Amino acid sequence: MDIDELLKHGLPADYVDILRERGIRELNPVQTEAVNKGLLREVNMVVSAPTASGKTLIAEMALVKTTRLGKIGVYLTPLRALASEKYDEFHALGKLGLSIGITTGDYDQPAEYLGLNDLIIATYERFDSIFRLKPTWLNRVGLIVIDELHNISDPDRGPIIEMIVARALKYGIRVLGLSATISNPDQLANWIKGEVVASNWRPVKLVEGVFDKRKSEIVFADGRREKVDDTGEDHMLNIVLHNLRNNHQTLVFVHNRKRVEEYAEITSKHLNPHTQREVSRILEELDAAPTRMERELLGDLIIKGVAFHHAGLSHVSRRVVEEAFRRKIIKVVYATPTLAAGVNLPARRVLVSIKRYDSTKGRRANISISEYKQMAGRAGRPQYDEVGESIIIDASSVDEGFKYISSEPEPVKGNMLSDRSLRIHVLSAIASGEANNISEILELFEYTYTAKTSRCIDITSEVEELVEFLEKLGMVKTSAGKVNPTRLGKITSFSYVDPLTVSIYMKYKPINYSDLYMLHLVALTPDFTRSATYVPSKVAALYEELAEIYSSNGYLMPHSTEFYDYDDWLRGFIHALALNDWINEKSEDEIVSKYMLGPGDLYNMKDTASWITNALGKIAGIMGDVSYNKKLLELSQRIEKGVKADALELASLKYIGRVRARLLIENGIRTLEELAKTPRKRIATIPTFGPRIADEIHRQLKELGFNPVE
Questions:
Q1: What would the mean pLDDT of 509-534 be, rounded to a whole number?
Q2: What is the pLDDT, as a whole number, of residue 560?
Q3: Interhelix angle for 626-641 vs 599-622, to 10°?
């Protein structure tokens, strides 16, 4: 379809001009089918198509049309990093006079200011919280785009997507779901009463293959066989080195962080370094990474044209690796599958491990077909490659590998019936005022994908039991068949924490406050443990004796309760120690080394702990506990900033982090008022500051009403 035809469908001429500026003259087959099936009309739709098939443009066209109708368009992603990526992509629409906003946190804030935007980018969780808080602009939302719709199968995020769509269906808001290839798109489309666009079209042809270990050759589905020289390394490294000799940029997926790093290190020994000129800019960007390990280890690898990528890296390091790979400075990246789920980073060849260690089985087990397809789909770089190739590297046999290639992904299934999901979303229905009795709760749940695909399941008794549980916790009150939220119930739901987290707090809150006890309590809540970092057994053994000493002195939670067992308790203690070091201004390098964490793990822990602690602080206030309200809100801020209490005021300014705040204090500057009385030239001479930071500090002080000394 020629893009000029979009004018007939109500898209503005200046938007068509933007497409032309991007070099787009025609829509591809997937985009054309979507338009023909009602994308630019008031039609719900599920689009299932491979990676890089142009699904973002499909969403963009629908969002632009929505704004032309005077309504707000919303684009939802599973990850903050993806939300930022989409925000940057859609920023060009500002040429149309559109205002674009982004929101990924502050779960208890209705964010009325977002209503000033035409397009809003958000994470699933944040928009679910907005549905609970009901800002005035919510009734102007005309379209919700849900990226990565197949995440409905995820036990944690799936129920959130289901509730967002359930509310959209109930209130008549249009839904557009985007997904990589799934086996049951018709079922999802039937759920939202919409059209389905299911296509296998790709801009770059994908050829899949399996490595035959016995013959040391790659067997491709198109009949080709490619011999791989045995270099004395293991099979994976042999294939990587083979690819490098053939100038094939390669992405390798391995299900183990340690192995990812080890493979990158070994591979670097086989490569010649870039010149300083070729990598200087990338290395400058890497200087902003928070730990020496990242700056030095990754820097040395990047110079050789290799890197690793996993959730343990800081955001800075992950971004640097991605950018260097796109610019072809890096020839091979070893990554855990988190990269496949979030970032648009295609490669000429993708190597996929289909086996990972399963702790529940105590052995290596095969991954799902869906996971394999997600990773394999990264093969092939549009505008660079005529073909992309994915290679399964560790199949037990060639036949096993080809079963992955020829099989359909597992069907998307709902997860709404887990105890945690029901507990959280039953309370949200009551707290938001959407449901005032059992029947109305059940009516809302009838709109979910789980209910639509599980008609024989009656959850009445489960909902009744949950209402009784919430009443015991003091979160709801029932009377004459009516169910109403209490202030505690509302703040729990609006803060986006699990009622069980609040139950643990109320039951085990210490008589005498201590930071370590509260950090341990937070680390044992279901909101923290569901995404908690794995603790190596040797680290656990190292701190077991110390844990017993602290416990015997009353500084920790009880050993075990109905909420957790001893292993969870010990892991929570180690996480609490790491967070305690963080708020006492130990360096990132010291913390990640001491507890065998990645910088990304530390930041994820502090973000999660800060959110939970803030929620508990507000809950303490609702319960009239003024002392704990103040202590927990301060603790939340300290976790967020990573500082001692005396540095909080200074660290509230942008560009004054934990290190600069302490440097100011060491230079006799302890408050914002004292900072305002300090001449700009003196601030600039303090290590790590300089003129630019000093100017920025003065600007912020003026905005706060101070009259800073020049």
A1: 94
A2: 86
A3: 160
Contacts of 510 (CB under 8 A, 6+ apart): 517, 518, 554
Domains, the chain, ordered by start? 3-198 (3.40.50.300), 205-406 (3.40.50.300), 419-494 (1.10.10.10), 499-642 (1.10.3380.20), 648-703 (1.10.150.20)
**Buried b / exposed e along 411-435 (16+ C-beta atoms within 10 A):** ebebbbbeebbbbbbbbbbbbbebb
Q: Can you give the C-alpha Rg of the chain in angstroms? A: 27
Contact 456, 493 (CB under 8 A): no
Banded model confidence at residue 344, pLDDT cuts 50, 70, 90: confident
What CA–CA distances, in Å, run from 125 to 83, 106, 121, 204, 337?
A: 12, 10, 12, 34, 22
3-state helix, strand, coil in the chain (%, to 5): 55, 15, 35
- Residue position matching structure tokens 């700056």: 295
Asked if 93 contacts 72 with a C-beta cutoff of 8 angstroms, the reply is: no
Beta-carbon contacts of 295 under 8 Å, excluding residues fewer than 6 positions away, are 286, 287, 289
3-state SS class at 308: strand
Where are the strands (E) in 231-376, listed by range? 250-253, 306-309, 332-335, 349-352, 355-358, 363-366
Calpha distance 222→166 (Å, rounded): 43
Alpha carbon distance 532, 40 (integer Å):
42
The Cα 50–Cα 46 span in angstroms is 13
- DSSP per position, 89-120: HHGGGGGGT--EEEE-S-TT---GGGGG-SEE
Which token pair is 665? 């204090």
Q: Which residues lie below 8 Å from residue 591, measured CB to CB, with a gap of 6+? A: 578, 581, 582, 597, 602
* Whole-number Å distance between alpha carbons of 299 and 294: 7
Which has the closest alpha carbon to 210: 353, 93, 8?
353
Share of the chain above pLDDT 70, in %: 99
Which of 616, 533, 634, 620 shows the shortest CA–CA distance to 577?
533
Residue-wise burial string across 323-346, b where 16 or more C-beta atoms lie within 10 A, e elsewhere: ebbeeebbbbbbbbbbbbbbbebb
Looking at per-residue pLDDT, the higher value among 327 and 73 belongs to 73
Q: Return the bridge partners of 217, or none.
A: 212, 227
Cα 651 to chain centroid distance, Å, stands at 26
Retrieve residue 420's tokens.
Answer: 């945690």
The two three-digit tokens of residue 130, written as one number: 């907005």
Amino acid letter, 320: V
Residue 342's pLDDT is 62
Nearest to 373 by CA among 397, 352, 346, 355: 352
In angstroms, the CA 480 to CA 477 distance is 10
Return the closest-CA partner of residue 580 out of 606, 613, 560.
606
Report d(CA 595, CA 394) in Å as an integer.
Answer: 31
Q: How many Cα atoms within 13 Å fall on the side-chain side of residue 296?
A: 4
Q: Is the pLDDT of residue 201 over 90?
A: yes
The model's pLDDT over 288-342, given as tens digits with 9 standing for 90+, comes to: 999 998 999 999 999 999 999 998 999 899 999 999 999 999 999 999 987 766 6
Tokens of 510: 């210490």
Distance, CA of 22 to CA of 551 (rounded, Å):
62
Which tens digit of pLDDT belongs to each residue from 606-641? Answer: 999 999 999 999 999 999 999 999 999 999 999 999
Report phi then psi at 305, rounded to 5.
Answer: 90, 25
